[in-house]
Amino acid sequence: MLNRKRYKIEEKKKKKMDVEVKTEYLRKVVSCTSRATSNKTVQPILNNLLIASENGSIVVSATDLDLAIECKLPANVTKPGKITIPAKKLDEIVGKVSGDEVSISNDKNNLTRILSNRSKYQINGIPPEDFPEIIKKPKKEEKHTIKQEELLRAISLTAFASSKFENTSILSGINFEIKGENFEIAATDGSRLARYIGKLCKNPTKEKEETNQTVIPWRAFTELEKLTASFKEGNEEVSFYYLPGQIIFTNNDFSLSTRLLSGTFPTYDKLIPKK
User: Fold this and answer.
1) Inter-axis angle of helices 23-34 and 87-96, to 10 degrees?
2) pLDDT digits (tens, 9 = 90+) for 196-251
3) Dihedral class, residue 99 (left if φ above 0, else alpha if ψ from -120 to 50, else beta)
4) Which residues, in sequence order, are bridge partners of residue 176?
5) What domain range includes position 238?
């Protein structure tokens, strides 16, 4: 009996990370973040998801260096740590795992164990040191905010009009513009045009009204729509802020970062009758 206890203590000491999460939450988060991974063999770590545990939660992240997604979910963290795991394999495992809760742990050799009351899986992970930093945190006053329902409505009424066949063209992007208290989203493929004008939430920390115009890749906007719809519960607003060459959208459960397209979006205002 003493030897068995000693063995369990030794096993616990070997673990670099040990967390327990609800299977349903983990399934949703892995599915959402996996869409941002890369299939390029130049940097194999971009095929992986980064799992990082902290007090009371884990953060699952993925990026292909153009698009990045980070999702946060509550967890019981026995031992904090980080590991990267192949996204495709992890998605398959959490899709099959049974039970309401699943535990994730890894040892000093980066062997990751995924356990539930009826399932046991082992998978080789990759150390997280080479995983790129994907979401940089802003200062509070840099954020703008949109009501979640209005953002979903705006995307659904405009994104369909962008070009899906020319990924390098400016028409494959969606024009996103803020003018004072308003925001504007527009898309065109050269033969059709859709525009939506809505209201930003008032930001008490902003001393002056801001004007900014960017072009966001169509893929990023559709992923933003999926994330916002998936994490509606407990969220009423989506915030966004700018960094050089990128824009980041965030709420309590997710963050999405995307590079911006360079080029001049067509001056579509002249095509829309004023009366």
Assistant:
1) 150
2) 999 999 876 666 677 899 999 999 999 999 999 999 988 999 999 999 999 999 99
3) left
4) 185, 214
5) 140-271
